[in-house]
Amino acid sequence: MVVRTLAFRGAALASSRTQLDTLARPAGWPTFDDRMAAAGLGPLHATGIDVFQINVGKFCNQTCRHCHVDAGPDRKEQMSRETAEHCMRAFAQTDIPTLDITGGAPELNENFRWLVTEARALGRHVMDRCNLSILLLKPQQGLAEFLAEHRVEVVASLPYFRPTQADAQRGEGIFDKSVEALQKLNALGYGREGSGLVLNLVHNPVGAFLPPAQKSIEAQYRRELARQFDITFNNLYTITNMPISRFLEFLLDSGNFEGYMERIANAFNPAAAQAVMCRNTISVGWEGTLYDCDFNQMLELPVSTGPAPHVRDFDAAALARRRIVTANHCYGCTAGAGSSCGGAVA
Amino acid sequence: MDTYYHPQDLGKFSDMGKANPELWEKFMAYYGAVFAEGALTAREKALIALGVSHAVQCPYCIDAYTQASLEQGSNIEEMTEAVHVACAIRGGASLVHGVQMRNVAGKLSM
User: Fold this and answer.
1) CB contact under 8 A, A164 and B67
2) What does pTM read for this prediction?
3) What distance separates the 2 farthest-apart alpha carbons in chain B?
4) What is the ipTM of this complex?
C-alpha cells in the first residue's frame, strides 16, 4: 500500500485546526483538562529543561502510516542554517545536557551534521531519531560512521521484530532495510557491550491499541532479533500512537476513532501524567517556534510564554517554569504506563 | 431486541455486580489474580484466554482478548495458532468420542 502525505493529497486533516476540532468532540469520555483537574493534576507546569529537542523538518524518505508529523518525500519544510544557528546559540547559553534531533528524517537536513558537531563540541549528549533506512541511502554514505565518531545515541524506529507488522506500518521492504541498517550499526559497535555506543529501539503498536509492557516486549525483541539476525541493542522504548495527523486519519477511516479515544482516556494513569516528557523538554520547530513537545508542534500549539515564542528569544528561566499547553491528544502520553520519546514513564 | 449480542454490552460487564456486589468482587479479585504475571507471563495468559474464548465461542471474550493479546505484544500469527489450538482440542474432543461410538456399535453388532 503506497501512502501519500496528507499535505500531498490536500486532505482536510492536513490542517492542525481540523485535527484539533476532531479531537475536541468527546463522546463518553471527559476532556483531558477535566480529567487532569479531577485527578488534582492540572494545569501542568514544566519542572525544568533536560532535553532540547529540535525538529529539523518534515522531509523524509519514508511515509509511515502512523506518522504524527505527516512527513514524507514531498515535504519541503526544512530548518535553515540561520534557525539552526539560533538553536545552537540558545542551547549553548544553557546547561541543558541533551540535544535530541528529530524530523522527518533529521539526517536529510543539510545542517544535521553541523548541529551534531556543535553540540558535541559543547560536551553535550546528542540523540538522533533515526528511521534506519536512511543509513543505506547512497547520498548518506558515511552517516553511520559519522554518528559513531561523534558518539551520538541512535534512537531507531522498529515497530516490530517481524516484517509483516513492520512493513504494514512503515512501507514495503522497510523491515529488511532496517535489519541491514541495524547490522551495520552493530558492526560499528552500536548496541554492543562495552562500546559505549548506544542503540535504542522504539516500538509502537501497529494499529489502534496500546503498547505492551516495555520490559516484556523488550525481552521479545532481544530474543527474536538475536536469534534471527544476530542483532543486539541497549534498550527498547514503547511509544503510544498519538491520535493526530496520519494516525488520526487511520483511526477515522477504520472506524476506530471513538474506541481508541475511549481506550486511552479510560487508561488514564495519574502517575504517567505527572511524569510526561513535556515537563522537562523544550521542542523547537523547523521555523524556530518553541513548543512543549513534538506533538504540540504538529498541532501548531506553541508554548504559553508569549504570542510568538521563537528560539532567537530563548529565555531558559521562563521556559523552565512555563505552563504546559494541553488538549485531548495528551491522553496518548498518559495512558497505561505512559509514553514519551524515552518510552514508558510509569 | 434484534440480536442477543451487542458489542457495547461488554462495557456493561460490571453491571453484574449490582445485585450481588460480594460475589462480583470475589470473582473480580480472583480474575485479576489469574491474569497477573506469574509462572506464566501476562502475554501467555492472554493467548490462552484467546484460545479458550474461541472454544467457548464467547464474542465478548474474543473481542477483549484479541485486543489484550495485541496489547501484550503478540502478533496475528501467534494469535491464529492459539485459535487453532482451541480448534484442535474441540475437534479432538468430538473425534475421541468416536471411541464411545465404536464401543456401542461393537456391543450391538454381530
Assistant:
1) no
2) 0.91
3) 60
4) 0.78
